[in-house]
Amino acid sequence: MLTFYMTPGSCTTGVHILLEECEALFSVELVNLMTGDQNSESFRALNPKGSIPMLKLDSGEILTEFEAIACWLAWSHPRARLISEKPLAAARTVELMAYAVNNLHMQAFARIFTPERFVAGSSDLESVKAEGRRRVVEAFDLLALQLPGSGYACGDFSIADAALFYVEFWADRSDIPLPAVVRSHFELMLQRPCVRQVLMEEGYRL
Ligand SMILES: N[C@@H](CCC(=O)N[C@@H](CS)C(=O)NCC(=O)O)C(=O)O
């Protein structure tokens, strides 16, 4: 059985959705980021980067990084149809997913959630957070130009939608308004049974 290392409401929510979409069998190890579980000796022995999401495969191998886990789930559960079989369409899906993870998450929201990691010492954390908000707004505006006016990001539901969902969810909870096209994608995702199940399991009321 897979072991999924996660924290409710973090970026792992996107992987959680994909695990449910695949109907994968998995057990959960909760990682308390606030108390620093990710820095414990036992966690670092598995993943020296100290990051989640992390998946322990049936073989005992450890897989990290959102995009790698999402692609592995898609390729190893083809019946869930989480990525196109056509090379260019699949690459477009990875392109969107990478933008959500590398830009919106790592460059924008990370400045809001962990501003101290972007400056030396304890100087001006508020301006780092403000820059994070500015980047979130700018990135969603760019995304709005790429998303279709309705439906999922790449036609059928895909791994890109799960990545977009977790950053949209963060924006919603941070009172950052989403452009109309992005908002309608978020609302579509909120109707999806697996998304609703995951949010309830992670302790959110719908
Ligand atoms: N880019 C990596 C990192 C993701 C990441 O930053 N995850 C956060 C939680 S949302 C984390 O592990 N935080 C722990 C820490 O940085 O100490 C990925 O896509 O998996």
TrEMBL record:
Alphabetical UniProt keywords: Transferase
UniProt KW Transferase keyword: yes
GO molecular function per UniProt: transferase activity
Record domain GST N-terminal: where: 1-81
The UniProt record lists the keyword Transferase: yes
SUPFAM superfamilies: GST C-terminal domain-like, Thioredoxin-like
Pfam family, one: GST_C_2
Alphabetized InterPro entries for the sequence: Glutathione-S-Trfase_C_sf, Glutathione_S-Trfase, Glutathione_S-Trfase_N, Thioredoxin-like_sf
PANTHER family: GLUTATHIONE S-TRANSFERASE GSTA, GLUTATHIONE S-TRANSFERASE-RELATED
Protein name from the UniProt record: Glutathione S-transferase
Species of the source: Marinobacterium lutimaris
